[in-house]
Amino acid sequence: IALLVVTFSGQSIAYYVTTTWLPSYLADTIGLASASAGATASLFQISALLGAFGVPLLAARSKAWTPVAIVALLWLSLPVGLLLAPGAYGLGAITGGIAPGGGFTAIFSIIARTAGSDAQTASASARVQGGGYLAATLAPPFAGWLNTATSGWTAPLLLVFAATASFAITGL
């Protein structure tokens, strides 16, 4: 359960920091107008549907670790892409956007596969979500503080990278 708590924490931190700060990053770094930055953030959100529907299809036809590995690569593509190629923000919004829906689905399918009963599934799910969402409530304000303290977006993107890396390492 502890590894799944860390995995879900990484997923939740990356998701909520990105959801909160992506439009500001795009406006500050790329120079996008508010409407364009908001539209790109919406693209990130809509892309999550591909992951939510794609992971169960992939999981039914692959080894158990494959969906987590693919979601991890997609998650990592977002902060790495924004740090190294900020002009490709649209691609990052799509690839990184697929990850939240897929990651959520992958984590909870692991719980369902490994629990011995419905009661164990419910208990494990509650513990994983409790820990993950607690971490996620602290991360967006911290990312905002990092942006202010460093006068830039590199430190907040490194926070998202660390969260996605923790998802990848503990999820696998």
Q: Helices, strands, pairings?
A:
Elements: H1 2-30, H2 34-60, H3 66-84, H4 89-114, H5 118-150, H6 154-171
Q: Summarize this, please?
A:
The protein has 172 residues and is an all-alpha fold. Helices cover 88% and strands 0% of the residues.
Tag the structure with descriptive keywords.
172 residues; mainly alpha; 6 helices
Could you characterize the architecture of this molecule?
- The protein is mainly α and 172 residues long.
- Helices cover 88% and strands 0% of the residues.
- It contains 6 helices and no strands.
- The chain has helices at residues 2-30, 34-60, 66-84, 89-114, 118-150, 154-171.
- Helix 1 packs parallel to helix 5 (118-150) and helix 4 packs antiparallel against helix 5.
- The protein is globular and about 50 Å long.
- The model has no long low-confidence stretch (mean pLDDT 94).
